[in-house]
Amino acid sequence: MSAPAETVLSLRGIRRSFGEVEVLHGIDLDIAAHEVVALIGPSGSGKSTLLRAVNLTEPIDDGVVLLRGEDISDPRVNVDRVRARIGLVFQHYNLFPHLSVLDNVTLASRVVHGLRRAEAERRGLELLDSIGLADFATSFPDRLSGGQQQRVAIMRAIATNPELLLLDEVTSALDPELVGEVLALIRSLAEAGTTILMATHEMTFAREVADRVVLLDAGRVVESGPAAQFFANPREERTRAFLSRVAR
Ligand SMILES: Nc1ncnc2c1ncn2[C@@H]1O[C@H](COP(=O)(O)OP(=O)(O)OP(=O)(O)O)[C@@H](O)[C@H]1O
């Protein structure tokens, strides 16, 4: 199985069941380098399961996950190395509470890439500085607000220079006044050319930042297209129904 060189991620026929219930019914999806794709869909449609499958946190029952043409769903791959190539940030519980903010950011580079502590910390401090949080480097995560913690979690995910960043509803658990700072960070990463697949309920944000929108419904991709067209003129009745429910 092959994929064009500029394709970062290709999913082919991804299936996942929990017990008797199949929640992903054969997902096909390609993401090009520097593309920002918003994955939207009703609660329970399978967004989290799909993102977790991409970075091998969730096993799949069938299908293939290709990262730059390499089959990472092959059971022989080194999972830690794959996860360093695909950053994943969840809704919450992202940071290790017993590690300093800086150690959170540098851990993967040191363990997976074998970067020396001084080098990892230099880069980690640069990343923290870029989000205005270098002063918290030696603090534990509980000193930070939820929005600051999520921004550190995103920096931790990109500290290994991943080829793909997966964001799973990273603002959903935040107080409304903290959402903006996290969205601003994602926007700046998108503008810098980061390849992003993000599940989000923030429709205004998706419309502004995403190149493409993929609508998942009951474990199937039911619509996929350029963001502007998707929001302006959804093809599917269920897309219209979904957008009218979540519009904000
Ligand atoms: N570990 C699990 N065991 C059993 N069922 C699960 C498990 N994880 C997810 N599911 C089920 O799979 C379906 C898809 O869940 P998933 O969390 O992927 O949806 P989602 O689109 O991310 O939803 P939300 O927007 O609410 O986060 C749901 O019916 C959910 O209950």
UniProtKB/TrEMBL annotation:
Question: According to its UniProt record, which protein family does this protein belong to?
Answer: Belongs to the ABC transporter superfamily.
Q: Which Pfam families match?
A: ABC_tran (PF00005)
Q: Which GO terms describe its molecular function?
A: ABC-type amino acid transporter activity; ATP binding; ATP hydrolysis activity
Could you tell me what this protein is called? Amino acid ABC transporter ATP-binding protein
The residues covered by the ABC transporter domain are 9-243
Segments crossing the lipid bilayer: none
Protein's UniProt keywords contain Cell wall biogenesis/degradation: no
Key words of the record: Amino-acid transport, ATP-binding, Cell membrane, Membrane, Nucleotide-binding, Transport
State the compartments where it is located: Cell membrane
What are the record's GO terms for cellular component?
plasma membrane
Highest taxon, organism lineage: Bacteria
User: Its topology with respect to the membrane?
Assistant: Peripheral membrane protein
PROSITE patterns in the record, alphabetically?
ABC_TRANSPORTER_2
